[in-house]
Amino acid sequence: MGNGKRGPAAGEMLQGTLDMLILRTLVMGPAHGHTIAQVIEHTSENALEVEQGSLYPALHRLEDRGLVSAKWGVSENNRRAKFYQLTPAGKRKLAAETSRWRRMTRAIGLVLDEHRPG
Amino acid sequence: MNLRRFFGRKAKDAELAEEIQSHLAHDEDLRRARGVDADEARRQARVKFGGRNTVRDTEWRYRSLPWVESLWRDLKFVVRSLAKTPGFTIIAILVIAVGIGVNTAVFSVINTVLLKPLIFPHQEELVDLMNTSPRGPRGGANVPKFRIWREQTSIFSKVAGFDFGGAGLNLTGGDKPQQVQGVHVTQQYFSMLGVPVIQGRTFTEAEDSPNGGRVVVLSYALWKSRFGGNAQIVGSTIQLDGQPYLVVGIIGKSFVTDTPTDLYLPFQFDLNTQDQAHYFTVAARLKPGITYAQANAQLKLAADEYRRTYGPRAMGPQDGFGVVSLAEAWVGDARESLWVLMAAVGFVLLIACANVANLMLVRASGRRRELATRAALGAGRGQIVRQLLTESLVLALTGGLLGLVLGATGVRLLLAMAPTYIPHVGENGTAVVPDMHVLMFTLGVSVLTGILFGLAPAISASRPNLVAALNESSSRSGVGFRNGKLRSALVISEMALALILVIGAALLIRTFMKLQAVDPGYDTRRVLTMAMSISGDRFQKTAGVAQLVRDGTDRLTALPGVTDAAAACCLPLDGGFGLPFNIVGRPKGDAPFTGGGGYDTVSWNYFNTFKIPLLRGRMFTEQDNGAAPGVVIINEALAKHYWPKGDPLKDRMEIAPGAGPAFAEPARQIIGIVGDTRSRSLDSPPDEMMYTPIAQMPDGMTALNSRVAPLMWIVHTRVEPHSLAAPMAEALRVASGGLPVAHIRTMEEIVVLNTSRRRFNMLLLTIFGASALLMAAIGIYGLMAYSVQQRTQEMGIRMALGAQASHIRNMVIRQGMVLALIGVVIGIAGAFGLTRFLASFRSM
Fold it and tell me: Highest mean pLDDT range out of B188-197, B455-464, B570-579, B808-817?
């Protein structure tokens, strides 16, 4: 948490953003916590580097809300791990959130373009 | 949702720990695969992961309910502290249980009768159709009115007429004949009320027309009791009054009307009749969205049309039609009595609260050191108030639980004592069951009670003077000024509330005693009455009924022990008819009639049997029959009203003029004046009455009478009348060719029934008043005992300084008396208001 100046730290990251990243990750198929953490880290080019532990409360809240389901299984390393999977409700939520996010970023992009000097 | 999270959290935490381990293991695998050595890989994985316990904490907090935990802590503490003073705890819980118990009992009844009259779907759309006049709305309908109401399709979706069984029918064809209550209804009755049909169907439009055939719908109760619940009965015929009736359907168990009904018959109105007799009631279902105001506006037009068609004699210029809520009309005046009862039990609960508050105050001052110590150790004021409030809530809820049990028992007692007047309670009050409403009510009352009696002590105890409380040996310190004042106020209000209840009870007792002393104008001792349903074909003409009355009277009088016997359409205090009349030769100005009065058709021996005195003229004789000129006897009240100076015996009366050809009869000579009777109720002034001989009724009137009301037999005996019931029933069975009698009651029983509501209210209010007084006395005793105990030291010093024991005694008594007296003054003022309040209810 020492890098507060570089950008929003994991703890301060908007709750919804982390949720969306998790859901997005699970589109590819069921995954356990470690994989999710890795994928988020790589796909976001480390911009959204999270303290990996903070992933779990977010995952469990999603599970409580019925957006993901979870069950224990055996990982590629032959270790016990808890696998998370998108539920239909989770898919709907992701679709809604994604399009909302796109609209928002487009709007922001338009505003920024408009005020770009030159 | 939160709760599920809360209860699963231990398991979840363990799972999370395992998940974290798994995560770390995977991360180590990854790092080792990149060539990092084992120890370094483990270190890096842990650093990367962050605080493991922070994560578990976050989750644990997410899955916790802070208030549940602190409540649980408080509860454990409170239960421990209450258990330390079992005497206080038990008394407090019992007092609350009684208070809440009586409230639950009365509320259960109110809930069923007033708040839950949801017997019919969309009940708010159901209305009773009324005849309006400057004297207020009255129910009742004739066929022309029914027809015109039925045509108001812009406001009504359904309109149905029904009667209340009246005569009863004789169900034969089984082992023994049985008198049953058959209610006549029109075709839309069932669909209007949303009545469930479990077998077959209800009547068709064709079946409810003249010559629609003999069809019947059975009630669930009759179907079960008489036909053993056999579904095959639908489509077969049963014998009613000797005629075969086709059973077309069976009504579901959930449909219960307050009029006990065994079966339903179609009215089969001839809608073209001009018949003006009112002998049924009409209800309707408003179209969705139609307001009462809209309905009444439309009915005003309908009334104008009716007046145009049938003339001002059928409907005066001031009269009209209107609607009232069906639920309201059917609950009637039980409503007021029940609310008065509710207020009375509310008082009892308030007194219970005051009592427990008092106990709590006493207890709190005994615990001043404990509370001060806690405050000194850092407990905030809020925490102490919360603890004390939790304590009172625990007491209140425990008391409430016990009260619920008491209430469930109490309501059975209440209904066992209750007269028949409480509508909607079903057979033996089976409809009164504790439901969600009652549970919520008891819970709400319990919580409210807890706060009410807990708040004052809690606040007053939370302001401890720390230094004083800790330094004094608290048990001997004097009664704190604030607490003393509060306690006195509580005792005063208890006293006042109890007094109001007691005075209320005394008022009802006085009214009741007065009522008992009223001379009804007829003999009620050793008079037995019996009802005989004569709806069969043989009794559609006057001659047949007159024959039955003659035979029956002869056979009854022949029984040893019988002094007199008579028959009549109706009994005093048991309902009756009213008809308008004209006095021949007397101008009646603008009014349609000269006047009106109660109308009883009686056999010649009626007045002797009831010992109603003849004041002038002569009684009826057996010779006043259909062949003889028409005669009528009036009572003194009617004579005084319409002949303030003249002589009624010189005049002739036209009864029910213009009621249609079926009821037309020549004017009757007034032949006698008899004493007044109280026939509607004992506390209303004597009705103005006309009596005509049964043997002289127009056939149309007899047919109607036989259909809507049973013939009443009245027998005066020398011995206890019930002992002769069996031979009398046998004599009448022979005389009538096999008809049973029902409703065998003495006149005294009818009087008791008539006054039972007052007796019931009086009894309950007396019980409540007495228990309130007892509670108030306990409250005063508690306060005095406590203050004396607190002042032992002071009294010792006084005595050492030379005060006599009597002085001390007087001082203590004076203190108590002052409180009691203030309470009495306030109570009397309150009771004064109550008297005026009660006086506004005639029904009490």
Answer: B188-197
Measure the CA–CA gap between B508 and B654, rounded to whole angstroms: 43
> Do B11 and B152 fall within a single domain?
no
- Whether B598 and B688 have beta carbons less than 8 Å apart is answered as yes
ipTM over 0.90: no
The three-class DSSP label of residue B619 is coil
Mode of pairing for the β-strands spanning B182-185 and B263-266: parallel
Chain A residues near residue B58 by CB distance under 8 angstroms = 54, 57
Q: Considering the domain boundaries, does residue B499 fall inside one? A: no
From chain B, the residues in CB contact with A79 under 8 A are: 22, 25-26, 29
For residue B691, is it within any domain?
Answer: yes
Give the closest-approach CA distance of B57 to chain A in angstroms. 10
- Quote the minimal CA–CA distance from B190 to chain A in Å: 47
Percent over 70 (pLDDT), chain B: 89
Kindly state whether residue B605 falls inside one of the protein's structural domains.
yes
Beta carbons of B529 and B712 less than 8 angstroms apart: yes
Q: Which residue do the tokens 């994560």 mark?
A: B55
Torsion of CA B465, B467, B470, B471, to 10 degrees: -130
Mark out chain A residues that contact chain B at CB-CB < 8 A. Answer: 32-35, 37-38, 51-54, 56-57, 60-61, 64, 75, 77, 79-82
Question: CATH no. for residue A44?
Answer: 1.10.10.10
Mutate to test the interface with A, among B23, B29, B30, B31 (most CBs of A within 10 A): B23
The nearest CA of chain A is from the CA of B67 a distance in Å of 21
B231 lies in some domain: yes
Q: Is the pTM of this model over 0.90?
A: no
From the list B512, B109, B502, the residue with the least C-alpha distance to B338 is: B109
H helix or E strand, kind and range, residue B477: none
